[in-house]
């Protein structure tokens, strides 16, 4: 028991979780999203892009057994810990964090459902509409939503081609957005 709690296996699992989460965050922070595609470079805009990339990761590992399922759960836990930490850094009080976390979790899971339905239905316009609704709710028209939707489909294909064994070893790569 003590070996599992404090041993090498736990350290290796932590290293894999950190490596994967670092890659997800890096993918979400790629500069073309914010410069060429007008994703707001604000805490909420960054949350949207991180949520989108976390969704893609979770979607890739959905239904995978064993270690992949465990890693998917650890990564979603890490994501919400990071969101909690970010709220506190923004100055949200200890009393206000749980209420905001509940709202952000609801937002995340609502988005994942609409993104999943669009991906599985190969419905590019529906994905672009969902992205417009979520990433740029303050505007009625966001031409870059179609380019972001195409990126999501490309990222989904790229992740599907990556072997589960590689992902479980901490290797993960997202494509670079091709800004026009």
Automatic annotation (TrEMBL):
Residue ranges constituting the Ubiquinol-cytochrome c chaperone domain according to the UniProt record: 36-172
Designated name of the protein: Cytochrome b pre-mRNA-processing protein 3
Family, similarity comment: Belongs to the UPF0174 family. Belongs to the CBP3 family.
InterPro entries hit by this protein: Ubiq_cyt_c_chap (IPR021150), Ubiqinol_cyt_c_chaperone_CPB3 (IPR007129), Ubq_cyt-c_CBP3-rel (IPR014569)
Pfam family, one: Ubiq_cyt_C_chap
Top-level taxon in the UniProt lineage: Bacteria
């Amino acid at each position: 028991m003590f070996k599992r709690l404090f041993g090498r296996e736990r350290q290796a699992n932590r290293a894999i979780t950190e490596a994967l989460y670092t890659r997800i965050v890096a993918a979400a922070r790629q500069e073309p999203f914010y410069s060429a595609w007008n994703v707001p470079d604000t805490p909420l805009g960054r949350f949207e892009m991180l949520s989108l990339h976390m969704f893609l990761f979770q979607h890739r590992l959905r239904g995978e057994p064993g270690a992949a399922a465990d890693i998917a759960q650890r990564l979603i836990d890490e994501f919400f810990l990071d969101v909690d930490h970010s709220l506190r850094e923004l100055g949200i009080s200890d009393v206000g964090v749980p209420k905001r976390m509940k709202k952000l979790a609801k937002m995340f899971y609502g988005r994942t459902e609409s993104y999943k339905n669009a991906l599985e239905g190969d419905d590019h316009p529906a994905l672009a509409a969902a992205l417009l609704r979520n990433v740029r709710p303050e505007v009625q028209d966001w031409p870059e939503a179609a380019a972001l939707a195409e990126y999501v489909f490309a990222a989904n294909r790229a992740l599907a081609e990556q072997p589960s064994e590689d992902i479980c070893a901490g290797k993960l790569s997202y494509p670079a957005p091709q800004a026009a």
